[in-house]
UniProtKB/TrEMBL annotation:
A GO MF term: precorrin-3B C17-methyltransferase activity
Domain Cobalamin synthesis G N-terminal: residue ranges: 45-123
Domain CobE/GbiG C-terminal per the UniProt entry, residue ranges: 205-326
Pfam family, one: TP_methylase
Domain named Tetrapyrrole methylase: residues: 333-537
Enzyme class: transferase
Protein name (record): Precorrin-3B C(17)-methyltransferase
UniProt xrefs under PANTHER family: COBALT-FACTOR III C(17)-METHYLTRANSFERASE-RELATED (PTHR47036)
Annotated keywords: Cobalamin biosynthesis, Methyltransferase, S-adenosyl-L-methionine, Transferase
Amino acid sequence: MIGVVAATAGGRAAAARLADAWPGEVTVYESHPSHESHQSVADGLRAAWRECDAIVSFLAVGAAVRVLAPLLEDKATDPAVVCVDEGLRFAVAVLGGHHGANPLAERLAAVLGCEPVVTTASDRANVTPLDSYGADLGFGVHNRESLARVGAAVLSGEPVALEGADGWPLPALPPNVGTDGALRIVVTDRAEVPDGVLVYRPSSLVVGVGSARGVSAEEAGALIDAALDEAGLAAESVRCLATVDLKADEEGILAAARARGWEVVTHPASALAEVDVPNPSDVVRAEVGTASVAEASALHAARSFGRDAQLILQKRKSANATTAVARLVPKGKLSIVGLGPGARDLVTPRAVAALQRASVIVGLDQYVDQIRDLLRPGVRVLESGLGQEEERARTAVEEASRGRAVALIGSGDAGVYAMASPALEFASYDIEVEGVPGITAAVAASNLLGAPLGHDHAYISLSDLHTPWEIIERRVRAAAEGDFTISFYNPRSRARDWQLPAAFKILAEHRPPATPVGLVRNASRPDETATLTTLEAVRAEDVDMFTVVLVGSSRSRAVAGRFVTPRGYRWA
């Protein structure tokens, strides 16, 4: 929840805009003018601090800091705070930059039109911040006191060694972070920690538990603690506790998990019975329907989170409980990112975040050039030329399958005549896939022309490199007979100069000569052009591969020089 503290009419108006823009996310703490207004503002800030995850304060930075300073405890758990000035010119990330304030300042800029002010050093240098490194994967910093020294070394270019990160889809760190260095960053779920290193605890362990009915929390907890200690494993890296669904209400197991801050996940006995384990039990099979609870639960749950798992501690017993520990093999991550039609301000914030979250970028060379300045130092770029789409898709999936964080980029929306479909044909269950939407060329072209896509419409590619012309022709004819507005992609090249006239001829059999036709070349780029003509007057030779062609339905028309397709409703 975001607490918004407003003391003036202007602040209250801005708070209302935020509440409208982010429904369900905002609680407004208003303060009206009075002799005690300063006190009431302070009370609002303190209440927001207690009750919210983040705070937007329409107060001067100094005023907010004076109230909040006595409440500060730990930047990892304190609410993020952004201050916005009365004139709505700046959104200043004051507290918790890497724990929500920086992205909140960006979100405020999008709603209020103010400029985000971010002062954290890593963000100014476009370097992955260490205090949130791997946080979205469940990583935690074991020894936060080492962050400042190691972070300063990373930013200043000193050699820093990184160990244990292989196989985790982590963001890029600068080139000076490698295999050697006096300072070290270690990713480990082992309990023993070397002196003088910055340690991250990955969320890599699953504890499986079985028990007799009525087991106490003390017995179950002591067995788990002893097992982790025996294996030399850190409790901080336990992702969850797993058991059979018959134990979903076993209070001793639930209480032991609560005491350690762990989630409990359960699986049916039929699923656990399919898991091969080293210590099956016929007695357990007869009682619960699976030959193993602790070992099978640990393995099954760990595999559900990763691409595989290993049992690193076999079953251990007490009088009324059993436990085992599995370590998951993490899945890599593939983000398929649409960069939009070309203009930087049409690249979505989510696309920018995905690019900066990646350690590997795969894309067409000219698209990489468009966003190269957004990439983090240390990211590996795999770029290639036109005609190598399948190779890029395969490469991106292979890199993700090795446990890396990969962004496969394309123009427009990656799912529309772009890289998503070839990549997903190669992708299996061993990677996570995220689709990042982009603004398509047809949508960008439509907005330049007016509203040609106001009713039902179809996208058709005229390229016969992968689709026989007979099929394309059948689709054009069907869209013409169905009276769809049509967006033609890949309309005409030097080697394919007859398909577009053929498509126009088919459409002319079903459309009046005055049907609007829009030609938009290089939509949203500096040399964009938009031409509105008619089906009768359009010239195919004015079209190339950088052009989107939009042909209206029989109801489309030109209104004041704009291409409009009516929505088709009868207005009361």
